[in-house]
Amino acid sequence: MMQHKTYFMTTFLLLTASIVSAAEWGDLTVQFVYDGTPPAPVKATVNKDVAYCGKFNVLDESVVVNPKNGGVANVIAHIYVGRGDSVPAVHPDYEKTAANEVKLDNKQCRFEPHVTLLRTSQTLLVGNSDEVGHNTNITALSNTASNVLVPAGGELKQKFPLAERFPMQVACNIHPWMQALVVVQEHPYMAASDADGKLTIKNLPAGKLTFQFRHERPGYLTEVTLDGKKTSWRRGRVELTIKPGQNDLGVVKLAPSVFEEK
Amino acid sequence: MGVVLAGCTPEAHFNANAVLMHKNENAAKETTEFSPQRRADIANTLVALFGTPDEPHIPAAPGIGEDDVHQVMDPRKISFAAGSVSSDEQGRARGLYREHCAHCHGVTGDGAGPTASFLNPYPRDYRMGIFKFKSTPKGQKPTHEDLKRILVNGIPGTAMPSFLVLPENEIDALVHYVRYLSVRGEVERLLIDYATYELTPQTEPSEDDPNPPPEDRLVNLEASEEDQESQAEVIRSFVSEVTQKWLDAESLATEIPAPDPDRDLAKSEAHGRELFYGPVANCIKCHGDSALGDGQTTDYDDWTKELDPANPELVAQYQKLGALKPRNIHPRNLRNGVYRGGRRPVDLYWRLKNGIDGTPMPAVLMLPENAPPGSKGLTEEDLWALIDYVRSLPYESISNPRLAQPKPNNQRERS
Questions:
Q1: φ, ψ for residue A225 (rounded to 5)?
Q2: What does the DSSP assignment read for B183-228?
Q3: B residues 196-255 lying closer than 8 A (beta carbon) to A
Q4: Which of A202, B103, B109, B228 has the most CB atoms around its CB within 10 Å?
Q5: At a CB cut-off of 8 Å and minimum separation 6, what does A74 contact?
């Protein structure tokens, strides 16, 4: 039995990150903006533990647009590593955080953060800061799925040693409005856009890299407007040349139709 | 048994997972559709790997020895269970699966046999590789013993019958056949995902050349031999990936430390009751204030979630492709004492410790060893108390005033 495990570990799992350091490094910055009047926030249907959860202004977080500047939050970006490709060189700064615990909290009857970024070497720490119990039901494609009831004040540590092609979906079956995503990659080159729609991936090895962009509602971002030009990103993928230092992709506009429910 | 049926049955075939293909068509967006060519590639690959319902084949799994593959799918047992109902020259039965199981679970194991739509819950669709009543942790396959137990005992409270009357070797063959269908179904899913997300996006076939470009083929026959071989290797690795999980499961059964035989049962039940209604175990959130299974009745199981049940338009599309009508999953009514996964304390131990795969039922949080004071979670003693209480629930008076106002009692919580 052990032999098979070893076989899989060596053949499939460890696309060993090259420790070879690249000569030069660059950061990538992008801002995602809603190309239209920002939709008004939608309240979540809070129909469980109403006495407690009803105290918070719980919103539907599947699409979050900033009313002030149209920034689209929770756009996920990461380097795309194809089957059999090796992981790009990793900047030494990332070694410090390689074995960190990354917290996904149940807080005020929502998941905090909505998008968690997790490396395969790190540990997911599921917490519950609420006064009510939550079950944290994680659906995984490559890793082992899990569904544990985390009581008020409880915590649970879990490893997800395999990269996931899609973000893992996290739900709480007790409070059906609670949804979140966990991105699992074997490299640290991933980010999620903030409340202004901005994201930065730091210390990328300079050179050509393929990035993949996605968002919870539409999935891959395939139709975007970049520098005022309509652009297609097949499967949300785009190849960019990262120069040493700052690289600003600029403002990527997303049409309202992108976010319409299918 | 032993009756040779005349060859009036049409040749059986495995149904394609058309629902997943359509779901992926929607998800991948620019892949407008699975072309007939791509569908044929997937079907042909599956036949090459697994054969047909009448002539099954066990594929090789690179990196896994043949003996180990056969531990999961023994070709002799598979062929014993496969085929149409008949007997061979020596009078041995064949076609066990189609005789006993297919009318509910379908020839393909897609849980959509002719009887399926009348049943609640629906018969298991083996193709996702998810099973509910087993000894292993969430996300792991059942062991051989787990599947055997299901066949021998059936699933009380559902249409799944007990096959206690079948001889041991037939049960054994059927267990192998369930795994065969499940491995086949999961490999099919991997192939569909691979075609959707990893092959070059499909371009529209043009007027003068209706065939899609060669890069759309599961194996690009115009690529170099080396590239073709590496594509074939990827496909073969899917078989290994799935088969390995079944092999691993055999050593993953959750061990059950025996409860203290001298414990005071009444006290243990009372403690279990506190936990059941209390904030650490939280059982009432789903099972309801009176444990009647009415706390959370709008949820779905994992098989149904795949059908985007909140979206009637998509559901209608999937139903056209053979999916059964989505239904809500209900937490068990714990007052009628029917346990689908078995009524023994050990069965309930596994249900609570590991949760029930494919359903909302979560695992309890156990206190890690040497947990710092103040940590939340259950001890082994707590877990047995919960089991004792659950087992007593059918006998507890529902009009008991204690129940009308369940009061969380935190005395026994670690604080």
A1: -115, 120
A2: HHHHHHHHHHHHHHHTSPPPPPPPSS--SPPGGGSSS-TTS-HHHH
A3: 197-198, 201, 230, 234, 237, 240-241, 244, 247-248, 250-251
A4: B109
A5: A61, A64, A114, A115, A181, A192, A193, A215, A216
Helix residue ranges per DSSP H, chain A: 2-8, 50-53
Q: Regarding predicted confidence, which is higher, A98 or B210?
A: A98
Q: Which residues of chain B make contact with A174, given a CB cutoff of 8 A?
A: 282, 285-286, 296
Residue B203 to residue B162: CA distance in whole angstroms: 51
- Residue in B122, B149, B123, B124 with CA at minimum distance from that of residue B350: B149
Q: Which residues pair with A28 in a beta bridge?
A: A201, A247
pLDDT digits over B145-184, tens only? 999 999 999 999 999 999 999 999 999 999 999 999 999 9
Q: Is A37 on the interface with B (CB under 8 A)?
A: no
Report which secondary-structure segment, H or E, holds B99: helix B96-100
DSSP β-ladder status, A146-150 and A25-34? unpaired
Q: Do B285 and A261 touch (CB under 8 A)?
A: no
Are A252 and A32 contacting, i.e. CB atoms less than 8 angstroms apart? yes
Q: How many helices (H) and strands (E) does chain A have?
A: 2, 19
- Of residues A170, A95, A73, A183, the one with CA closest to residue A127: A170
Judge: A144–B198 Cβ closer than 8 Å, yes or no: no
Mode of pairing for the β-strands spanning A223-226 and A245-254:
antiparallel
List domains and CATH numbers for chain A.
24-259 (2.60.40.420)
H/E stretch holding B362 reads none
* Single pTM value for the model: 0.91
Task: Decide which of 3.40.50.150, 1.10.760.10, 2.40.50.100, 3.30.930.10 is the CATH code for B265-296+331-395.
Answer: 1.10.760.10
Q: Helices H, strands E: what count in chain B?
A: 16, 2
The domain spans of chain B are: 8-203+219-249, 265-296+331-395
pLDDT in tens, A97-108: 999 999 999 999
